[in-house]
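Bug #77: duplicate submission created two jobs. Keeping one. Sequence:
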Amino acid sequence: MLGLEKKRVVVTGGSSGIGLATARWLLEAGARVAICARNESRLADVAAVLRRDFGDDHVLSAPVDVLDAETVGRFAQQVRDAFGGLDALVNNAGQGRQSTFADTDDAAWRDEWELKLFSQVNPARAFETDLRQSNGALVMVNSLLALQPEPHMVCTSAARAGVQSLLKSLSVEWAPDVRVNGIVLGLVGSGQWTKRFAEREDQSVSREQWYGDLARRKGIPLGRLGDPSEAAAAIGFLASPAASYITGATLDVSGGLARHI
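Kept job's structure:
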């Protein structure tokens, strides 16, 4: 129904969390998927499982630092050699940094801007020609902080807003050849929240209780954190031909946490 059968998709940050959930969701929909990540051993383990479940011809993996343009370029060539081109690129960029304006130094500002912006820019540059040739799609995974900034995550909020601006610019510059869309995430039970749960003060508190209390404190109307598979479904839709008349759009996946209009 979504038209993803035999489509060729790259997912950056694909060895864990939302990236891994997205890769699996796409594979289940019949796509061929290439994943990359920095942690080579974890990537190898994940790729082995995906190949077991979906077949060698459907899964490609390579250790890549998306901040290294040269390495990303080599990965793009690997994808061309294996898949013959690309139909969709999912840029799934790193975790947030907790800091206020007062305690964020210059190095932290630069690091955060480089991570959030160039993790989008480098893959987009490397795969632009492929996406234009296939009339493909770029999906940017972003945070609700881009539209609803928080003072305790000041530099991440600013950098995320930059990604949102980039999305709008590319959606015009790359039209009509490539659709460019994104999602903004609220609190999803992966990555940093899994880590914070592991470091909780009261180790007797269960995951369900800890996440439920967190959702109540944050005021999430749906009363819970999102699951990576729910983010993956939104990403998969935007990457698919089913979203063929959607570009420059941002899909809110926050359980109602968004307060902006």
